[in-house]
Specification:
15 helices, Glycosyltransferase, transferase, alpha/beta, 6-stranded parallel beta sheet, 3-stranded parallel beta sheet, single chain
Length: 444
């Protein structure tokens, strides 16, 4: 377990009381740690709190992602209890220090029991959207009333409008999920669920120099026409099979569209095998995932495409003038980064809540690409070629670009002086401040 700060000592006589801590617990994986880090920045920027971010890094091997993450949280509970007790002890009679709130992400939600035992308010941070949270909350009712497999239901699921949580902090914003936020608020006012605070989007900013700014793919983009390049990347965890990698390559080649593709090692067993960086290593084709591409692919596409191995500076790429579309696994970090850059998306969901995200994206900023056959789950080269051509050069793609521009403007306004996300954050910060003050009065 790693933390970013030590408990603050009690304020010395005559000095300003120490700020109360907001303790944030991030599950393993970039999709959890990065948005939690951005939330921590926002907490500190608010000016009345100190943020202590606790990433978990004790990973058991050879298990599914969910099992590994939950095992890590379970192992961390005693250490987390000790940390909270230590921070609570730093509270001073004058009202400084202490703990204002405990904020785990969804995989760490069962650590709320520790906060509840110590009388610390607990708020779950949803690194994905509110629709996915609502789906999760509705699953017990769906399970109770459904006898078949969920995928076999004849009609789409109609969601209404957890836990020990005092509230949910969600990395989304009003223009992205206006109807869902309104429905959730209605249910919250009726006491069905704790309140939800839509405080996003939390998106990393472009770097001004260093390795990212010098990456060769950015220099390649500089040479391409405006809005002409399709960026292809399946996130930090998304993994294609060997066959799907070949079909995607053939589809991109057949489309004739310019592309920048971040290629990772394939896995024929797990669509999230890259989550912990274990996909494909030691299974031939050399030390690079580019060895899995069809023979001659790089030479045949060198005038229109660029394939890079493992990693590329995504925020900088999406913000580049040459990028006109994004083939994505629909991870929420990637989605919000595309929204902030005003780039339309071709949604290709792979695992977790990404199919839920894809439904939303189809209505908001892009198109959806799903396998038509139920047997092998492969998106064919013909389907790839047709979809990427439509996104880059078709009427649906043009409409998606316009929607993406509108949503980019709305995202920028969300944290403006009167923005909905700023107001939501001020509301939850006010709750934390009152709770910390009440605890200090009780201690004195």
């Amino acid at each position: 377990m790693v933390t970013d700060s030590e408990p603050a000592p009690p304020a010395a006589p005559g000095k300003q009381p120490a700020a109360a801590h907001v303790v944030l617990l991030a599950s393993p994986g970039a999709g959890h740690v990065l948005p939690m880090a951005e939330l921590a920045r926002g907490v500190v920027a608010h000016g009345e709190f100190t943020a202590t971010l606790v990433p978990l890094d004790d990973l058991p091997a050879d298990a599914r992602i969910e099992t590994r993450i939950l095992t890590v949280v379970d192992r961390a509970l005693p250490h987390l209890r000790d940390l909270l007790i230590s921070l609570l002890a730093s509270s001073s009679p004058s009202g400084g220090g202490g703990v204002a709130a405990f904020v785990p992400d969804v995989f760490g939600a069962w650590a709320l029991q520790v906060a509840a035992e110590l009388g610390v308010p607990g708020y779950v941070f949803r690194t994905t959207n509110l629709m996915a949270l609502l789906t999760l909350l509705h699953v017990p009712e769906l399970d109770r009333t459904t006898t078949c497999e969920f995928r076999d239901l004849p009609e789409p699921i109609r969601l209404p409008g957890y836990l020990l949580a005092d509230g949910f902090i969600v990395n989304t914003f009003d223009a992205m999920e206006h109807e869902t936020i309104a429905a959730f608020n209605e249910l919250s006012h009726k006491g069905v669920y704790p309140p939800a605070y839509a405080v996003g989007p939390f998106v990393r900013t472009c770097s001004s120099g260093g390795e990212k700014a010098q990456h060769g793919c950015l220099r390649w983009l500089d040479e391409q026409p405006d809005g002409s390049v399709l960026y292809v990347c399946f996130g930090s965890g998304g993994t294609l099979s060997t066959e799907q990698t070949a079909e995607l390559a053939a589809g991109l080649e057949a489309s004739g569209q310019r592309f920048l593709w971040v290629v990772r090692f394939p896995s024929d067993k797990d669509r999230s095998a890259s989550f912990f960086g274990t996909a494909g290593h030691g299974h031939g084709h050399g030390d690079s995932p580019l060895g899995y591409l069809p023979e001659g692919f790089a030479e045949r596409t060198r005038c229109i495409g660029l394939a890079v191995a493992e990693w590329a500076p995504q925020v900088e790429i999406l913000s580049h003038r040459a990028v006109g579309g994004f083939v994505s696994h629909c991870g929420w970090n990637s989605t919000l980064e595309a929204v902030a850059a005003g780039v339309p998306m071709l949604a290709w969901p792979l695992y977790a809540e990404q199919r839920v995200n894809a439904v939303m994206l189809a209505e908001r900023v892009g198109l959806v690409l799903l396998p038509r056959g139920k047997d092998d789950g492969i998106v064919t080269r013909e389907e790839v070629a047709a979809a990427v051509t439509e996104l880059v050069a078709g009427e649906k793609g043009a409409a998606a670009r316009e929607k993406a521009r509108e949503l980019r403007e709305a995202a920028a306004k969300a944290w403006g002086p009167d923005g909905t996300s700023r107001k939501a954050f001020e509301a939850v910060a006010s709750e934390w401040k009152m709770a910390a003050a009440a605890r200090s009065r009780g201690a004195s």
